[in-house]
Amino acid sequence: MDQHRLSANVHAQGLVHDGIYLQFNGERHHIDMRSLTGGRTITVYGQQELVRDLIAHRLATGKELLFEAEAVGLAGLEWGGEPVITFHHGGEERRLSCRIVAGCDGFHGVSRRSIPAGAITTYGREFPYAWLGILAEVAPSSDELVYSFHERGFALLSMRSPSISRLYLQVPHGEELTHWPDERIWDELDIRLGTPGWTLERGHVLEKSITPMRSFVAEPLRHGSLFLAGDSGHIMPPTGAKGLNLAIADVKVLADGLTAWFSSGDESGIDAYSQMCLKRIWNAQNFSTSLTSLMHLDPGADSFALRLQRARQRFTVENENARSALADNYVGLPFDPPVAPGRAQ
Ligand SMILES: Cc1cc2nc3c(=O)[nH]c(=O)nc-3n(C[C@H](O)[C@H](O)[C@H](O)COP(=O)(O)OP(=O)(O)OC[C@H]3O[C@@H](n4cnc5c(N)ncnc54)[C@H](O)[C@@H]3O)c2cc1C
């Protein structure tokens, strides 16, 4: 965002955090990411705000941007062919001819489904729990995010802005929202996030939803002229806040590759796209899955597994190397150096 001068609002409104809190046994431990990573921090900025900034920039260029346009089919995707996107817009079926298709249409979009079976392999895992999330009109009760393990399940306190809190509860897979009136959610958050002398402020609930926890990766992320980017190619459990960050990382690698190809015909960047992104994606999967299993209550865990989990939690907060590994992954791993021109991987 900085590189493309799109970050004015991120810097003006984003909340800069030095770290996070990990909580278990009713005790809160600060992971000081700024000191553990040599000065790097985390910026908390709403995804909708980020999308708003990107749309505003596109509109300001005067270039076309279609809203309420649903792609229904992709064809001609072999490299060197003539890709065509068929889509519905304004009550009509329309066709868009292009040279490259960036498949940025999320997990349920049409892009990944347009790749013939056999040309793509998918890897996935469903977790036996989900996140019940609320957006509430109340100032965050903590200066930084609190990830809390509790014998009743995980809870997370996060924030959208200085006056809006975002809070989550681990609930069983398949749980229904109707079982969770606002009062019950606040009571449960109180129990799971509570520490002596600390109060969770309550407020009007603006939004409520349940999200299943899933990991998914498609390999490769390219099929001929189609490049999968973001959730169309991979999904992380939300623990660790990697999804949108990875989507943006994909787009950066892809944009650099496409710029080289359009300007000089150099294919090395786009040839390396899938491999470069998958390395980062699997690192993030590993991190998100580890943090998820560290802080969630596995309904199938026996007492031995629970004691191992406790040991991992203590080691993570007490050992400096473990804290550093957590911090490095949380603030985000650096980009690999760009591929040298003409060097395909
Ligand atoms: C509870 C929760 C918390 C999260 N917290 C964080 C966090 O803190 N930090 C973080 O980095 N990530 C977080 N994520 C993950 C993040 O939301 C996603 O990874 C991110 O939205 C992926 O962006 P995307 O653009 O690839 O896909 P999406 O956001 O899914 O966008 C895809 C777009 O394509 C459109 N589309 C779909 N099909 C079609 C079609 N056929 N034609 C045209 N358009 C289509 C959709 O309408 C949508 O606008 C969280 C996710 C969840 C569920």
Structural account:
This protein is of the alpha+beta class and 345 residues long. 33% of the residues lie in helices and 28% in strands. The protein has eight helices and 16 strands. An eight-stranded mixed beta sheet has the order 3-2-10-11-12-9-13-16. A three-stranded antiparallel beta sheet has the order 5-6-7, with no helix packed on it. The chain has a three-stranded mixed beta sheet with strand order 8-15-14, with no helix packed on it. Strand 6 and strand 7 form a beta hairpin. Helix 5 runs antiparallel to helix 6 and helix 7 packs across helix 8. The protein is globular and about 65 Å long. The site of flavin-adenine dinucleotide has 20 residues, from strand 5, strand 9 and helix 5.
Q: How helical, in percent, are the residues?
A: 25-40%
Shape label: globular
- Based on DSSP secondary structure assignment, what is the total number of beta strands? 16
Distance between the termini: 27 Å
The rounded Rg comes to: 22 Å
Give the cofactors and ligands. flavin-adenine dinucleotide
Number of H/I helices:
8
Order of helices and strands: HEEEHEHEEEEEEEEHEEEEHHHH
Strand neighbour order, sheet with most strands: 3-2-10-11-12-9-13-16
Mean pLDDT, nearest integer?
A: 95
The portion of residues forming beta strands comes to 25-35%
**Largest sheet at a glance?**
8 strands, mixed
Structural class: alpha+beta
Low-confidence stretches: none
